[in-house]
């Protein structure tokens, strides 16, 4: 029976001329649609039951509709907007910090047309792409010079390659960190060509440990802020000022990797003990490294600031070209830095700071309002506002929790994991967290403008699963 079934399949041409597929030829492309049709027909031939009746072949319009949906699904990007209801404000999997409107506007402006990326419009001569942000970075941090690369891992690797390639860089054992994605400082150092010289122990490092390690092979001293862990108890560490004195004594540059990129005191937002770039520069660090997309609330980038002598060596290294950022990143970073020059202005316009500063009572009222609406939705057994704890994330201050309010959801019958999958893959896409047998929608990481979308997303997911096993 299989041959007769196959003879009843429509041709590629017939399908291309059908109502559902014909508009796709112009919307997508002729070659993509043809390939989609052929792929569907090949799959159908493989799956067809030899004993099936030719009458079981779907009508032309129905088959074309299935092919069109399949093509459109394949054309969708896996990158899509997400409502971050996890309570992790700098969620690496969700792109870390959302950008300020000023940064978004600047990105659009620079993306739409050509830009003076490496051209001095006054002289007509070639310019440095870092000129777009160097002045701002120097103004905010007090540094003599600055450069920007793709992320802080890149900044670390480039700095080590330029200042320590083939020679030793001294680091305390207690600072040999591993952060997300299996990023390990020893591996980065090895890849950069610098030689790691460990001193001290995991919990105790003293100034004399650095002193005794300095030799004619030493290129630099390095301090790394342990952003994602804390050593407590019987500990001792070398203060930055002490390290700088040792560096000056032996004429060695001091590299200070402060990690998350605090540009001013964030204790008003509940973020304490984060090193501040300006303070490190003022103390005498030769090079300071930090992220642009964490506590700065800007685009993904690695910031390098410091003394002109060292920055010049860094930007002239061949690796700098491989790690450089484009005009879009520089545009967003510049706009963010202009906001951060004034902490009060930043508080009202940088989304990360807005989320951190949202009063707890405000979150409670929002959670209660959303919970009341969802309680009326079929498929939801219980929806209530609960007080919980959120975290900054992104490897920043992991021991410091932030008070928050969540909407806690219990379902009638659907598995929480299945329901959460439907939320993640729905429109709008919503990512919460499953905790203690409930789905929590944490509002600390959600701007108020998305509250209605949360109700819509949860209601759609609940309605689509209501009555199913």
SSE map:
Blueprint: H1 2-7, H2 12-16, H3 22-27, H4 30-47, H5 60-75, E1 82-84, H6 101-112, H7 131-141, E2 145-149, H8 152-164, E3 168-172, E4 178-179, E5 183-184, H9 185-192, E6 195-199, H10 207-213, E7 218-224, H11 240-249, E8 254-259, H12 277-283, E9 287-291, E10 302-306, H13 308-315, H14 319-323, H15 327-340, H16 343-349, H17 351-357, H18 360-375, E11 380-393, E12 396-411, H19 416-425, E13 429-431, E14 433-435, E15 438-442, H20 451-465
Parallel strand pairs: 1-13, 3-6, 3-7, 7-8, 8-9
Antiparallel strand pairs: 2-10, 4-5, 9-10, 11-12, 12-15, 14-15
Helix pairs in contact: 4-5, 6-15, 7-15, 8-9, 8-13, 16-17, 18-20
Report the CATH superfamily of the largest domain: Type I PLP-dependent aspartate aminotransferase-like (Major domain)
| Radius of gyration over C-alpha positions, nearest whole angstrom | 28 Å
Overall 3D geometry?
A: globular
- The strand line-up of the biggest sheet is 2-10-9-8-7-3-6
Distance between the termini: 37 Å
Structural category is alpha/beta
Oligomer: single chain
CATH architecture title of the largest domain: 3-Layer(aba) Sandwich
Tell me the CATH topology of the largest domain: Aspartate Aminotransferase, domain 2
Provide the helix percentage.
40-55%
Count of the domains: 3
Q: What value does the average pLDDT take?
A: 89
Contiguous runs where pLDDT drops below 50 for at least 5 residues: none
**Count of beta strands:** 15
Indicate the CATH class of the largest domain.
Answer: Alpha Beta
Q: What profile does the largest beta sheet have? A: 7 strands, mixed
